[in-house]
Structure formats: structure tokens, C-alpha cells
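Changelog note: in this version the structure field was regenerated for every chain. One regenerated record is shown below for reference.
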Amino acid sequence: MPIRILTAVALLSAGLLAGAFGYGAVNLGPTFDAVPLETRLSFHAELMKMNSPVMQTAMTLTALSALALAALHRGRERLLAAGAALLALASFLITRFGNVPINSDIKKWAASSAPADHAEILRRWDLYNNLRTLTAVVAFALLITLALRRRAARPADAADAAAPPERTPGVPAHS
């Protein structure tokens, strides 16, 4: 797979991941805090039905495409891509071992009632959510940096390369 296509896949998946987590942290989190607990729990439980496959796909695509970019690059570019892959993996691990177990609890609470310590558990969920959002945003930033470095290091565009060389006044053109 050409590096340009792989870079596009990495940027798209990382952008979607960071955007979705960012939207959740900035918009859904405060909204969850503003509505009655029962509303939050039922909405959260329903939201996770769609979020789970979508977010896992975005995390996996980001990690794998960034890892592939790391394998294809050298030097600083390899470090940027590997860093993005590790951060996408961190997002996955935080989600899997932090948020997912609490999501299972929330699903049960939505069907019955929340325990007395629910506020502390929900604060822990928010902490995990903020951490995975941060790792996803930084992974995306690293991939953007990688793409910009590649573009800056690339020779002139194909159109420039195909143009005839400029002539120096007074020097005859060679045939």
C-alpha cells in the first residue's frame, strides 16, 4: 500500500477517533452531568451499543495504520508514527480496562438502580474518558506532524518537475 494512502487512512481514522472522543468529553460529558441520573444512565447504555463497534474500529485502524507507517519510515518520522500507534493502543487499553467495565455497570444500573457510590464510579469513568481523549488527540497530532514533515521533505510537485528548466539569460539552451 503506498505511503500516501496509508497516511490518509491513519489521518482519517485518528481524526475520527479524536473527534468522537473530543465531542464526548466536551459536549456529552457536561450534558450527562446536567440531566437526571436516570436519563444519563439510559442514554449512556444505549449510546454504548453503537459506540462500541465504531470506536473499536477507529482505534484499531489508527493503531495499525500508524504502526505500518512506523515500519515504512526511518528516523524522526518512524518515532512520530510509532508514538501515534502507541497512543492509539493506549486509548484502546484505557477504554477496554477502564471505561468498558464501568459501561457494563451502567447498563445494569439503567435496568435497576445505581449504587450509593455511583458518583465516584462515574467520576472514574470521566477520568478514563479524558485520558483516552488526550491519547487520541495527541496520536492525531503526531500523525498530522508526520504528514506535514513528509510533504515538506518531498521534492517539488509533479507539475514543477515536468516543467522545462528555466533558462539563464545569455546562455543558449542545450538540445
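Spot check on this record: The helical segments are 3-34, 37-72, 75-111, 118-153, 158-162. Residues 75-111 form the longest helix (37 residues).
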